[in-house]
Write a structure and sequence with these properties.
Blueprint: E1 2-3, H1 6-10, H2 15-25, E2 32-40, E3 43-52, E4 56-64, E5 76-83, E6 90-94, H3 96-115, E7 122-126, H4 130-142, E8 147-151, H5 155-159, E9 164-165, H6 169-175, E10 178-181, E11 200-203, H7 216-221, E12 223-226, H8 229-232, H9 237-245, E13 253-255, E14 273-276, H10 281-296
Parallel strand pairs: 1-6, 7-8, 7-10, 8-9, 10-11, 11-14, 12-13, 12-14
Antiparallel strand pairs: 2-3, 3-4, 4-5, 5-6
Length: 298
């Protein structure tokens, strides 16, 4: 079994390398994925597994304790176990936070690399947490001239990122080329009437029913893409609610990463595109395998 040192491993990684791993992983057979949630009040245990024939298997367990923040403790702990595809042997233990960071940012980076205009310069981050910080690094690898502005519910958290701060969310949305929303919102923050021709929106935050970051009007105005139909359409409020209201239908989801890349693309400079990041366990498996491969080749 390989034990991977997170800080040393991260120095071996690249965003382009991860995107190549994602492209290769989606050419393999469709993954088998299962998620299990356990709840105790506001506390959650998430146990997720994935198996991709030809790549391997993964089990990722996370505990989410929101009350830890008031105690000065991390709100999320976890572990990632990677298993050999041929023997089932435990092949590697990979740091939970390393996998999550690269998987989550890489997922939306792949969408943006395909859907955002090539001349995109103005990037708006909605939310100022760890994911937003990772997205600055990820986007900059593909859009080297990117300029970042951040909006958060509290100005102090936005200012702490060391970027330009937006005080008016509507005005910031209207002027952005790419909008990345990574919040814990349970009701829409971004209104469809604010969106402008040619924009691309990466939605990261909503990960379960009852969570949304954009309204029905936004979903109607955009061409909608997902990383995986299997992990988003019937599982995440961002899709469940507008489908239930009749604002869109399942058929309005244009493509996911398992489809021909020619479908997962921008058709014109003026259209609005939305990509919903579901972050399924199959992407954790592709990411953990990429990290383990880089570590073994070091």
């Amino acid at each position: 079994m390989t034990e991977i040192v997170p800080k040393e491993a991260e120095a071996l990684l690249s965003w382009q390398g991860l995107l190549q791993a994602f492209e290769a992983g989606h050419k393999l057979p469709l993954s088998d994925i299962k998620d299990m949630f356990l709840y105790r009040g506001q506390d959650t245990i998430l146990d997720r597994g994935a198996w991709i024939d030809g790549l391997g298997a993964l089990v990722k367990v996370a505990t989410v304790f929101p009350g830890n923040a008031a105690k000065g403790l991390p709100t999320i702990y976890g572990v990632v176990s990677l298993f050999d595809d041929k023997t089932g042997d435990l092949s590697a233990l990979v740091d939970f936070h390393l996998v999550t960071k690269w998987k989550t940012a890489g997922d939306s980076l792949l969408s943006a690399s395909r859907l955002a205009r090539k001349d995109a310069r103005e990037f708006l981050l909605v939310g100022a947490g760890a994911v937003a910080r990772s997205m600055v690094e990820a986007y900059s690898s593909v859009f080297p001239e990117a300029r970042f502005t951040v909006w958060s519910r509290t100005r102090e958290s936005a200012a702490a990122m060391g970027l330009a701060v937006a005080d008016d969310l509507e005005a910031a949305v209207r002027k952005a080329d790419v909008i990345c929303s990574a919040t814990m919102a349970t009701s829409p923050l971004i209104k469809g009437d604010w969106l402008q021709p040619g924009q691309h929106i990466d939605l990261i935050g909503a990960y379960k029913p009852g969570m949304r970051e954009v309204d029905d009007r936004a979903m109607q105005r955009a061409r909608v893409f997902v990383d995986s139909r299997k992990t988003t359409i019937h599982h995440i409020g961002e899709l469940i609610e507008p489908i239930a209201s009749g604002a869109i239908t399942e058929a309005d989801v244009v493509a996911d990463f398992y489809d021909d890349p020619a479908l997962y693309t921008r058709r014109s400079e003026d259209e609005i595109t939305i990509a919903k990041n579901g972050g399924g366990a199959h992407l954790d498996l592709m990411t953990a395998s990429y990290i383990a491969d880089c570590w073994r080749r070091r």
